[in-house]
Amino acid sequence: MTIILRAEPLTRDAFAPFGDVIKAADADRFTINQGFAERFNDLAKIDITNEQGQPNISIVRSAPQPLPISLKLVERHPQ
User: Fold this and answer.
1) Which of 27, 31, 42, 62 is a Cys-bridge partner for 37, taking CB atoms 3.0 to 4.6 Å apart?
2) How far, in Å, CA of 48 to CA of 77, rounded?
3) Which residues pair with 37 in a beta bridge?
4) Is the Cβ–Cβ distance between 32 and 38 less than 8 Å?
5) Is the alpha carbon torsion for 17, 18, 20, 21 positive or negative?
6) Per-residue b or e along 16-39, where b marks 16 or more CB atoms closer than 10 Å to that residue's CB
7) Domain residues of the chain, as ranges?
8) Using H for helix, E for strand and C for coil, what is the string for the chain?
């Protein structure tokens, strides 16, 4: 038996029964990591009403850095 699958464009409406489609182009954005990366912020709302906290789903686009890398900043998150 042969099954033929046809690719279709990914759209928010078409994918809605399965979940959310996130798209960096529609996002609030700002520069992070001392100017080496851009963060497309808060792209999806996640319902965690039974838990404490507020998740933030983001995409980060970063430029490659020459090796060796010298770390001057490291983030520490409380959770």
Assistant:
1) 62
2) 19
3) 32, 62
4) yes
5) negative
6) eeeeeeeeeeebeeeebeeeeebb
7) 16-62
8) CCCCCCCCCCCHHHHCCCCCCCCHHHCEEEEEHHHCEEEEECCCCCCCCCCCCCCCCCEEEECCCCCCCCCCCCCCCCC
